[in-house]
Amino acid sequence: MRYFLSSILKVIPVLLMISFIVFFLVRLTGDPVSLMLPETATDQQREDLRQSLGLNDPIYIQYFTYMADVIQGDFGESFRYNQPAIDIVLERLPASFTLAISSMIIATIIAVPAGIYSAIKRNTFADLIITGSSVLGKAMPNFWLGIMLILILAVQFSIFPVSGSGTIAHLVLPSITLGTAIAAEMTRLIRSSMLEVLGSEYIRTARSKGLRETIVVNKHALRNALIPVVTIMALQTATLIGGTLITETVFSWPGMGQLLVQAVNARDMAVVQAATFIIAILVILSNLTADLTYRFLDPRIKYED
Questions:
Q1: What is the tens place of the pLDDT at every residue in 196-247?
Q2: Which regions span the lipid bilayer (predicted)?
Q3: CA pair distance 168, 148, nearest whole angstrom
Q4: How many angstroms separate the CA atoms of 146 and 175, rounded?
């Protein structure tokens, strides 16, 4: 509990730093007033809007005002949607969660058996195929794989919808696209982790007792081999979020990634800041969850607050 509480306290300066960086980077992209008003707007109208938004105040005053609002859950109003920015982001969050979870499920289904089998069949032809496929899967850009899946499975054979959402069929292609790179990374990690565990003394002892290989692998080796996998799965949260920015755009999936790309293009500062803040919280929480999961997988691990 002490470790958990100290970790929560460490989150605060991280979020402050992120808010500071995003706040200033967004304002370096240009004047949002030029986007919010038509070209026919007068100079007085532009000045009045700039004054109402507080853009004439010194930059440090703008930041303190922004943080005071953020503490209250107010990230401002989107000028594109005429709605509170946080409401728009939270409305898109379930779609991104659905895509991320389905992608992780696909990656796990592929990576766990492939990594274990590759370790058991080390230096065989099957091991070569699996490791080669992992390298290829990691090297393929998300946008290229997504386009290829659309051309083959959606356009050529009409098995899945080209884009959009609403049914499970719409979820298949973006999930495969996003899950492929994660599966490749997890497969390689599981293989190396299993090889290390299978060479341990207690595994040799278990085999010397005459236990079946399936029991040795599944009961004794797999649990300890999963500890570094938890690490990579937590770190893959950032990869998932980065991948959704591209994947959701390619497949027109109505998630937070597509919203963020559109907001950046439109210089919708409120939405960009709200989305980035939510993403930062998700990444931090995933890493904290991984730390707490270590203790469950290996009771020998001790925490220091």
A1: 887 777 777 777 777 777 777 766 677 677 766 766 676 676 667 767 788 8
A2: 7-26, 97-120, 141-160, 166-184, 225-246, 270-290
A3: 20
A4: 10
Q: Name the residue with tokens 């004794």.
A: 220
Residue 106, token pair as written in the block: 């696909």
Is domain 87-297 annotated with CATH 1.10.3720.10?
Answer: yes
pLDDT per position as a tens digit, 146-204: 899 999 998 988 888 888 887 888 999 999 998 888 888 888 888 888 888 877 777 77
Q: What are the domain boundaries of the chain?
A: 31-74, 87-297
Interatomic CA distance for residues 39 and 87, integer angstroms? 29
What is the per-residue DSSP string for the chain?
A: -HHHHHHHHHHHHHHHHHHHHHHHHHHTT--THHHHS-TT--HHHHHHHHHHTTTTS-HHHHHHHHHHHHHTT---EETTTTEEHHHHHHHHHHHHHHHHHHHHHHHHHHHHHHHHHHHHTTTSHHHHHHHHHHHHHHHS-HHHHHHHHIIIIIIIS--S-SS--SSHHHHHHHHHHHHHHHHHHHHHHHHHHHHHHHTSHHHHHHHHTT--HHHIIIIIIHHHHHHHHHHHHHHHHHHHHHHHHHHHHHTT--SHHHHHHHHHHHT-HHHHHHHHHHHHHHHHHHHHHHHHHHHHH-TT-----
